[in-house]
């Protein structure tokens, strides 16, 4: 038996190096891993006792920080009842409450909830809902999707097929993925009115292909892994109208943007619209467990269930996991119990003030902030090994990619810690010049 509790740090790091595949990593020349042994508040503690302020919220998810007493209590209470039970033919209070809560806080007319186990699966479910809807109402020819360039929706096959085929990290699989349609991402910046040119290509493609299109899928307001770009809410509003005009469903991937990250509870609220289908995840459990959900309107649900199958054809093993649902309920309660909007405005103000200090640097192309998201875009791609070592030396945890050094800190971060985080980010970028 491998007793990792009593193993030395060197031992278990070697096990990791020998056997574990990390995200987008090589087994031939694995990167040096940073050994984290505990986390509390906004700090990660390394095996040698070093503490790092987490600027990533564990990829957008740990909005309440780590080891939060209310989320711990929810987990422990649920564990005493049951950690898991199959969702086929069985239900339980945590899932029922979560479904009602999600419907209550998301825009109308979203009213039905499919609870799954990861963001990518939530996107797969959304795509499947759209396809089965059209099949069920007798329009089997509507099988393609339309997505934005620079978009990213996940790493499973259906999701990969809707990511930018050039910049979406999945070009190796192009020949085996379904071939969907893409248009240029919106160029109008957040807060500005979209111009006619911004929607010209989208309008033309919808006009030509609406007969075969099941849905348009977008990340509302913020394109994440495709470039950390913030675009116009007016674009989304006009896109909603175009989808209605051409009878094409609209899917919003709110996995990264949901639960307050952009300053609204859900990013689509910046445009005052609602999609036909919405995906949420990441922050849903406050970063405790993997959980996601796909919401749809009555129109979609009834169309699917009145069709040939009579049911929606999907059912993951860990669907509706009680432990994850219980923590998700507690996380939503925690978020909404606070004046979260004022808090996000506080974070945005500090991000804007502090990260602007990077603008004079010759290596910096742009700085942009929205809600609890701050981005420094460089002119050239970062040297990941070098800059990450600098971040750790400065007591912060960051995970940049490509030309982007970005932060989305936990919402509980103090002014002092956030100011320190930002100043060390700018200092590390400056030292890389």
Question: What is the compact description of this entry?
Answer:
The chain is of the alpha/beta class and 433 residues long. Helix content is 36%, strand content 17%. The protein has 13 helices and 16 strands.
Mean pLDDT: 96
In total, the number of strands is: 16
Structural class assignment: alpha/beta
Fraction of residues in β-strands: 15-25%
**Regions with little confidence, pLDDT below 50 for 5+ residues:** none
Q: Assign a percent range to the helix content.
A: 25-40%
Radius of gyration: 22 Å
Question: What coarse outline follows from CA principal-axis ratios?
Answer: globular
Strand order of the largest sheet: 4-12-11-10-7-5-6
- The arrangement of helices and strands along the chain is HEEEHHHEHEHEHEEEHEEEHHHEEHEEH
- How many angstroms does the end-to-end distance come to? 48 Å
Structure description:
Homodimer. The record marks 24 as: Participates in the substrate recognition with KAPA and in a stacking interaction with the adenine ring of SAM. This protein has 433 residues and is of the alpha/beta class. The protein has 13 helices and 16 strands. The chain has a 7-stranded mixed beta sheet with strand order 4-12-11-10-7-5-6, sandwiched between helices. It has a 4-stranded mixed beta sheet with strand order 1-2-3-15. Strands 13-14-16 form a 3-stranded antiparallel beta sheet, covered by helices on one side. A hairpin with a 2-residue loop joins β13 (364-370) and β14. The protein is globular. The termini are far apart. 46% of the residues are buried.
């Amino acid at each position: 038996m491998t007793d990792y509790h009593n193993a030395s740090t060197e031992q278990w790091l070697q096990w990791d190096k020998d056997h574990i595949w990390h995200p987008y990593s090589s087994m031939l020349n694995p990167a040096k891993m940073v050994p984290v042994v505990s986390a509390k508040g906004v700090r990660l503690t390394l095996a040698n006792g070093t503490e790092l302020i987490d600027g990533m919220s564990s990829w957008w998810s740990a909005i309440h920080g780590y080891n939060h007493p209310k989320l711990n209590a929810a987990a422990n209470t649920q564990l005493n009842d049951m950690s898991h039970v199959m969702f086929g033919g069985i239900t339980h209070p945590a899932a029922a409450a979560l479904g009602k809560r999600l419907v209550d806080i998301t825009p109308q007319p979203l009213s039905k909830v499919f609870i799954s186990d990861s963001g990518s699966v939530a996107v797969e479910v959304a795509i499947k809902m759209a396809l089965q809807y059209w099949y069920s109402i007798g329009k089997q020819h509507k099988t393609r999707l339309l997505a934005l360039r620079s978009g990213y929706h996940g790493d499973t096959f259906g999701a990969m097929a809707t990511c930018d085929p050039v910049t979406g990290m999945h070009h190796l699989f192009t020949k085996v993925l379904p071939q969907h349609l893409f248009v240029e991402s919106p160029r109008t910046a957040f807060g500005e009115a979209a111009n006619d040119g911004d929607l010209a290509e989208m309008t033309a493609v919808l006009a030509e292909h609406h007969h075969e299109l099941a849905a348009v899928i977008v990340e509302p307001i913020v394109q994440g892994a495709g470039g950390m770009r913030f675009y116009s809410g007016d674009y989304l509003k006009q896109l909603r109208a175009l989808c209605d005009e051409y009878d094409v469903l609209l899917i919003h991937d709110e996995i990264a943007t949901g639960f307050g990250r952009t300053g609204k509870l859900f990013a689509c609220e910046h445009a005052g619209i609602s999609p036909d289908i919405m995906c949420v995840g990441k922050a849903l459990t406050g970063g405790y467990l993997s959980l996601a959900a796909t919401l749809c309107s009555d129109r979609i649900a009834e169309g699917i269930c009145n069709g040939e199958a009579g049911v929606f054809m999907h059912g993951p093993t860990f669907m509706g996991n009680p432990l994850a649902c219980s923590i998700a309920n507690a996380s939503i309660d925690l978020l909404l119990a606070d004046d979260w909007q004022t808090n996000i405005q506080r974070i945005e103000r500090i991000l804007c003030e502090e990260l602007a200090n990077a603008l004079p640097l010759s290596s910096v192309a742009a700085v942009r902030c929205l809600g609890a998201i701050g981005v420094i875009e460089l002119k050239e791609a970062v040297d990941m090994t070098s800059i990450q070592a600098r971040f750790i030396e400065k007591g912060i945890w960051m995970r940049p990619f490509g030309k982007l050094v970005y932060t989305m800190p936990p919402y509980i971060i103090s002014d002092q810690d956030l100011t320190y985080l930002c100043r060390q980010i700018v200092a590390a970028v400056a030292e890389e010049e």
